[in-house]
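Problem 12. The chain below contains 650 residues. Write out its predicted structure in token notation.
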Amino acid sequence: MPETPTRTEFLFMDVWQIILFYVLMFAAVGIFAWQVYRRILLWKKGRPIRWKPPYFKNFLIFFLGQKKVRHSRKTSGSPLHLLIFYGFLTLFIGTTLLAINTYSPWKFHKGAYYLTYEFVLDVMGLALIAGLIWAWIRRKYNPPRTLTSEITDYYTIYLLLIITITGYIVEAARMNVVPKPFDTSAPVGFLLSKIIPDITPASYLFLWWFHALLVAFFIAVIPKLRLRHLFYALLSTAGSDSNTSIGRLKTVRFEDIEKTGKIGAETAADYSRWHLMSLDACMECGRCTEVCPAWNVGKTLNPKQVVLDVRAAMEKDSKIADAVTEEALWACTTCNACVDVCPVLIRHVDLIVDARRWLVSEGRLSGTAANMLRQVQSTDHAWGGSATEREKWMENENIPLARDLITKGEPFDVLFWVGCAGATDPGALKTTKAVASLLKKAGVRFACLGKEEKCTGDPARRVGDEFLFQQLAEQNVRTFEQYGVITIVTSCPHCFNTIKNEYPEFGGSYEVLHHSQFLSKLLEEGNLQPPHFEKGEVTLHDPCYLARTNRESEAPRRLLGGKDKVVEPTNFGDKTLCCGAGGGRMWMEEPPEQRPGVNRAKELATTGASTVALACPFCKIMLDASFTQAGLENGVRLVDIAEILHEANQ
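Solution.
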């Protein structure tokens, strides 16, 4: 009768050796657990977590599925990371299954399962080795400029390589000294067993103990290595509130202020426990910094460094603004590029805006941004315009107003939200009029609020004045209720994001559509005619708050005749480059050489398109100035998609 495939555990070992092994491993795990416990004590200084994330779903998608790593840019080292992660994870799972077989009543480590087990672990061990060698070469000879290295990073690679290789050697030694007919199920170990000289039981034990000591040492020092992120990332990704849009900021509640006596984050303890835990999950890969528009024009903001600085502040109990620097905090455009690419779901923008809130509450905001807040507070308008000024563009346009329609008893289906820029800026006014004209042409029953419209509060909230935002949100929601608003259409992605994702916390839940979405719907219904472009004639700049924050990049392209008509820049869709206006930066002064819009203008110009289609009034303002600054304005037309569609329907 053929022998059942399996293997003997603790081969050639006496009882005292087995006991010594357990003592060694328990000690290693104990040292590991003690270091983790000390980090947990730091996390517990933060505010209790209120949200209830989909833990298992997050675990599957972001940890096991490595979604963010798989979708990373080509320069991110994604393939080598996946080789290391899945190779390491497979060996860890294999060890865990072996332990279950050893210490439980279920003895399944035999037969076909055993043969499959041996083969999978052998192959994935090679994947781990390949990833480690690739990582060493990349780190040594071709590191991205966002990647920082410490000597411990190389020690980690060497240690993992030695552990994996000695694992193969121990396997080969076992096959050499006690050969079995089914050893071929582990091809690497089997081939090695035929190459190495004859092994004695004593030699096998020496190799086994050498490998075991390396594993024990590795377990004990993991919390000191950058590799610790594998453990903390499990907690960070599973505990992330991934159901909430990255465009929605945390609301500050009065009861929290009463407890802490402060607004925003003065120290790390003012962040949530999950935010503090996520700091330890950071693998310092630099993906966030690589995509940061501020860092890419030479500003001091470095998202990776923000995480490291806040982590240091957590350990030292120092002030966030001092650790990160105020200059870096104010440089953020809140474009969420860093959040979008982070493999462990760190929310850098939350960290930055909470620190801004504290700075604003302490009166440490000055200049044009502070002037913007004063304007919003006194006029409900980000540019300081009067309420009546919101209706000037309507002259001779026959625009229906909600207050007039209600008085007449005439219903309307859609509220056209104009926004501060849409009612004030000369370029944005063209878009506003184009949208209104298209709505009328398509027979849409719509209305505007006119002088009853107030700023949504987006710039105030993202600069850090949380309560000015809340005041405006509550006032606007009351106005919507007054007129029974159900559907809102706006040409401003910032207004779109705020009303859609942030107003529900204030009782305002509506169907909110960006004008590209609504006009695209009208186009599909045959109420409007599409424009006609030759291939390569038009390119599209995706706004951050539309494409990345709210995952809408298809509708603008449909309005331009389809994706095949649009020549794409290097970065498009949810990987778009920020124009530099978000996060209140529209109202902040900056040196011309540090304008993110210039980088974007150059990239759009390289497409060779004569028309640059836009879908945001902020982007239009910033890119118009950036094209001029870069000397690229000749022969290039910057125009909103609504204006393009309006021209096609004259």
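Discussion. The chain has 30 helices and seven strands. Students who got a different answer should revisit the alignment rule from Section 12.3.
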